[in-house]
Amino acid sequence: MEQSDNTARGEDDEAIASTRYPTSARLLAAIHRGDEAAIREFFLLYAPLMRDQARRMSIGHDERDEFVMTVLDDVVLHLMEHHIVPRYLTRYVVASLRNRARNWHRDSARRLATRERAYTEPSASEQRIVAECYSEYGMRASEQLGSDPSSSPSGSIAGLAQRLSRGLTRDELVMLICVERHLPLREIGEQLGITYSAVRVKLHRLRERFRKLAIEHLRALKPDERHELERFFRRAEVSLTRTPAAKHKESTNGQL
Amino acid sequence: MVSFDDRAINDLMSAVGREAELTDDDLALQDERFLYWLANDLRAGLDQDQRSKDERDAAEFARRALTRLKVRVAEKRLPRRKLKERAASIRATLAHSIPAASRERCATILDLAVAAGGGRELWDEPCDRWLELPEDVPSGRYVALRVAGDSMAPLLGSREVILIELDATPRVDDLIVARLPDQSHVVKRIASMKGSIMELASFNPEYESIFVARDPSPVVGTVIARFTRE
User: Fold this and answer.
1) Could you give the C-alpha distances from B178 to A103, B174, B186, B198, B214, in angstroms and in order?
2) Which range of residues forms the domain containing residue A103?
3) Measured between alpha carbons, how far is B14 from A185 in angstroms, rounded to an integer?
4) B50 in the same domain as B114
5) B218 falls within a domain
6) Range of the domain at B35
7) Do B215 and B204 share a structural domain?
8) Residue A35 in 3-state DSSP?
9) Does the residue B129 lie in any domain?
10) Separation CA A6–CA A88 (nearest Å)
11) Helices (H), chain A
12) What span, in angstroms and rounded, lies between the C-alpha atoms of B146 and B163?
């Protein structure tokens, strides 16, 4: 279980959307008492957020519900057992899931690597397998998936991601996360401590910067790299083709 | 020919935002208010089916969490010890064996599995094995019983031996051995004592609670230690 360093409660307790437990302090106090209704409320409040986080952390659909249930179970047990009072409950819960998901991926990768090693390095591996086929073909077929150089990540895609995120300030990155989460502009403003109009202006400038950088990047690519990038965008559900509504903006939008 | 309209740029910005959130904990966890907003937004966006499922899961979750907490507390109170047993100095019924065992800092081991049922009278059972009391256990009247069944799993497994203090006054959350009206014996946790009714609960959620009268007391004694045979 993750230990939080923000366990001292401040006065800036945030409100949560629960009529029975209007603040996280009250919710926590009830959880510490072992109040069954509070534990139920804790689950109802955080399960959707945890499922969303688990999806983003690439936890498979089939395992997601169980994964979330286990993390929340461990967190609530930890809170009750040690009477921990995280200063920021939601951050604490989300951090627990992110750490658990990383460990889960690391362990999965380790297990996979061990199994792969058992095939490619039968003498060095701790795992023993019964060899049914010693042919060259069999050995080649059982090679690790990542050993093929053609399957390495594309330089053009990595280049665009790096280029786009390079030079972005922290506030701009926060803004991008908020955009991705469809946060209302007023909420973004409150988060960054700026006004509604300032958010609009900043977002507009950011959008223009992105457009410029993306076009510059695409121009510099060779045709095959450009196709690859287009395929990547399609996979990421990013639409590069013009929508009919956007056609009238053609004069202001960059083109390749 | 490729052009970037506003929607494409928004998508691209979202993709970079998603990546930043995924890889950077400081950014992802930077604001409690944002996360609350997100939690409530996602909750509000659930469809009716998912909402109903969450309600069911939440009830199960709360029950399971509380049970796990009780098990953890009991595990701390009753750490597993190594069983040291020997032949009894006298062969007698439990009622006669207890004083003799007590003088030699032992507890009589009864080969009558708790929760086995069958209406046998505990005190008339013959005993020929004694358990040596651990050093930190004060002298007193004790009896050791073997557990049967899985109603108290994961704390108590089948064939584990528990040490019962006969003269203790049990409180809520204590583990006790109780005699049921059908004369069978069970080991359970006291979940509540309200008025003249005592609720005896299992750790295994598949077993229902048992309600017994507090007076006359069906309590045989309180579990103070558990032992495994190695």
Assistant:
1) 45, 12, 5, 11, 11
2) 1-116
3) 15
4) no
5) yes
6) 7-43
7) yes
8) coil
9) yes
10) 7
11) 24-32, 36-56, 61-82, 89-120, 136-141, 155-165, 170-180, 185-192, 196-219, 223-235
12) 9
Q: Tell whether ipTM is more than 0.85.
A: no
A-B interface: how many C-beta pairs under 8 angstroms?
202
On the question of pLDDT at A70 being above 90, the answer is yes
Let me know: does A120 contact A143? Beta carbons within 8 Å: yes
Task: Tell me how many domains chain A contains.
Answer: 2
Q: Is residue B85 part of a domain?
A: yes
User: B157 and B229 in contact (C-beta within 8 Å)?
Assistant: no
Residue B182 maps to a domain: yes
For residue B170, the distance in angstroms to the closest alpha carbon of chain A comes to: 21
Task: Judge if B164 and B50 occupy the same domain.
Answer: no
pTM of structure: 0.71
> CB within 8 A of B8, min separation 6: which ones?
A238, A239, A240
Q: Which of B10, B33, B64 sits opposite A14 (nearest CB)?
A: B33
* B40-70 per-position pLDDT tens digit: 889 999 999 999 999 999 999 999 999 999 9
Give Dmax over CA atoms of chain A in angstroms.
Answer: 70
A237 lies within 8 A of chain B by CB: yes
Closest partner residue to A179 (CB to CB) among B10, B58, B68 is B10
Judge whether A240 is closer than 8 Å to chain B, CB to CB: yes
Assess whether B94 and B202 both reside in one domain.
Answer: yes
Residue recorded with tokens 């005993």: B127
Mark yes or no for CB contact B13/A207 under 8 Å. Answer: yes
Structural domains of chain B, count: 3
**Pairwise CB contact (< 8 Å): B9 & A207:** yes
